[in-house]
Amino acid sequence: MNKSQFRSPLYPYLLLLPQLSIVVIFFYWPAAEAIRSSFYLEDPFGFSSTFVGFDNFEDMVSRSDYVASARFTIIFSVLVTFFSLAAALLLAVTADRVIKGASTYKTLLMWVYAIAPPVAGLIGIMLFDNLVGPIAEFFRSFGWDFKLGVNRFDTAFAMITVSIWKQIPVNFIFFLSGLQGIPKSVQEAAAIDCASSTRRFWTITFPLLAPTGFFLLIINITYSLFDTFGVIDVVLKGEPGNNPVTLVYKVFLDGFRGGDLGGSSAQSVILMVLVLILTVFQFRLIERRVHYN
Amino acid sequence: MSIRNYIVGAMATAMSVTTALPALAQTEITWWHAMGGQLGETVNEIAEKFNASQSDYKITPVFKGTYEETMTAGIAAFRGGEQPNVIQVFDAGAATLIGAKGAVIPAQTLMKDNGVPFDINDYISGVRYFYADTDGTMIGMPFNSSTPIMYYNEDALKKAGVTPPKTWEEFQSVTAPKLKAAGYVPLSQSHLPWIFTENFYSRHNLEFATMDNGYESGTPVMLLNQDPIKGHFAAVKEWLDNDLFAWYGTGWTDNQKPFNEGQVAMWLGSSGSFGGVKSAAKFPFNATYLPYWESLTKDPTQTFIGGAALFAMAGHSEDENKAVAEFFRFLTSPEVQYFWHKETGYVPITTAAYDLAKKDGYYKETPQAEVGIKQLSLPGGDWTKGYRLGFYVQIRDVMNREYGKIFAGEKTVDEAFETIEIESNKLLERFARSMGN
User: Which residues form the signal peptide (chain B) (predicted)?
Assistant: First the structure.
């Protein structure tokens, strides 16, 4: 057997260097910098920098608004993840069943994905606007005095709905391709054995979709935690007031708007730990249980 | 927004390269600002006028987004050694910039060192010491200065048979109920921390924070959990519940729009909003002073300025600093100040410019435009020159949050102000520590 090998042992590293330097410069270096500055109290200009140990972390957890935004982030992520997955799955299963004009439906549903996220967010928020939003008007006709930016619940409702709405097309595409990957023979055999389509879905289709679903679960949790920043920013118009914010948005508020580098670094370290836990959870616990073949 | 700026910036640079070639000695300076839209165009016009007025210096204005974004960009640029010569920083960010020793060159020092005459008494009294240090040295050059005033819809007041209220007592017993009966929302306002808190303190000459409202170095304590302001917010909440006052959220325009559209009869906004109201309102409107509580004072005092100042950033060559000094000389000239005042509604910062506007008969045609400057020129008191508080953006966020809770009925006035007191003092302490005090 021919064994192909690099002539110099350093050669492979040289080939990896561009990729590695990108990772180091754009990921590890900022992360290390964030961890370092989370232990310091620093003025924004960097003239004075004092080591304060865990003071930033203590200060953070003792603040009522941090605890409140942590609590909101959990509720927000659970709702956004669940509903964007559930709605996309429902749409994908329905679109998969259509026989006539199937490709037209699929194209139309996928089309939404082509809208740039900020535009989608802006359109979504316009629908909820107090003065011109048709959805806000619709709610008012039911006696729900919808007030975006004034009422905490109403603001949260708009943030969550728009975040879900924006994520559905992505999930839809993945679910649909997952569904089309299920062998026809398995589906036909199931159709002979069982008359109830609901039962067929839960016992055959759903487990076979699990790898896709699991992948999407992780993607959606990350989305709801980090990528919803734009939606939240558009809703709040730069003034948080008495409205709920997620942890990522709070990092921005304290660090960028407020110039509290130590405090916002401490918050971002907490988020890093959260992502780490999520990753460990992904590979250790769930991935083992998901049926791939 | 930003792409356009890059293009404009790139074009400006390209043009400056071609035009700078013949005049070899021309010194170029940059000016980062937060004035978008119409205001930004006026800023560009001022820069063009300065460039056309002489051939030694050339200033390039660059729009950097909101006040917060501009300041963040300036700080990041400073840390990277790429700071602009002039940066516009807003009232709430002044403490961060002035507190960081060595980030800026005081405007007064810069001008004097470069042979530009400077006398602080040329500036109108409400503007004079807001961006100064404890010794009264002017650090930031007041640029767009405004103050909260009360705009009112003349048709609405006529219909209700009332005159604009001088005091809050008059507002709640006479003006507001009659306006409500005439089918209007009597009042809205656009900035609770600025109008109903900071300027509540200056209008009634109340101490806002210890250590001379924060001007002395050290760790000041905010005097917010106090009866006068709590009484005001208790009244406002009552007005809100009785439809004598409406609150449309924390955003500025959300509260201004209903006034522009004629639903709200009186609106508390910035004297700098004059141009915007004028172009949007389809009814005759006028403006007057911010009301006060007669139960608190018989002699209401002047208000604080809001808006922003121009700061000369440190770390540039002497030539460039000289150019900035010359630009400040140009900017503070009566003609430029009057132009800026007329175009935008921001107040002229010098007495000479104010006199020029009067002489020109500007206030005869538009008396509304004079209200802000007149209010800033009212008698002052011990606590009316301004305040200097760190992490003030977050402190305002805390106020906005807690006021929102009062209005939503989630907290009582007492509970909310207790939280504001605790959290704002914690922030001030943190700020003092971060500045190495």
Answer: 1-25
Distance (Å) from the C-alpha of residue B175 to the closest C-alpha of chain A?
A: 26
* Token pair listed for A177: 């391709």
User: Please, what is the end-to-end C-alpha distance for chain B in angstroms?
Assistant: 39
First to last CA, chain A: 32
Interface contact A241-B249, CB threshold 8 A: yes
- Quick one: which of A207, A231, A281 has its CA closest to A84? A231
Between chains, do B79 and A130 touch, taking CB under 8 Å as contact?
no
Residue A220 near residue A76 (C-beta atoms within 8 A)? no
Residues of A with CB under 8 A from a CB of B: 41-48, 50, 52, 59, 63-65, 130-131, 147-152, 237-243, 253-254, 256-260, 262-263
Rounded Cα gap, residues B231 and B235, in angstroms: 6
Report ipTM (2 d.p.).
0.85
- Structure token digits, residue B164: 């604009």
Placement of tokens 């999520």 in the chain: A278
Euclidean distance between CA atoms B423 and B50, whole angstroms: 45
Query: In 3D, which of B110, B175, B97, B174 has the Cα closest to residue B137?
Result: B110
What does chain A come to in residues? 293
Confirm if B188 and B245 have CB atoms less than 8 A apart: yes
Distance, CA of B139 to CA of B97 (rounded, Å): 10
Query: Sign (positive/negative) of CA torsion B245, B267, A135, A149?
Result: negative
| Residue B416 · residue B403 · CB < 8 Å | yes
- Residue B198 has which token pair? 């900071």
Name the residue among B199, B163, B205, B171 with its Cα closest to residue B187. Answer: B171
| Phi-psi region at A218: left, alpha or beta (left = phi > 0; alpha = psi -120 to 50) | alpha
Q: Under a CB-based contact definition with an 8 Å cutoff, are residues B353 and B338 in contact?
A: yes
pTM for the complete prediction?
0.88
Tell me the helices (H) and strands (E) count for chain A, helix number first.
Answer: 15, 2
Smallest CA-to-CA distance from B193 within B173, B208, B178 is with B208
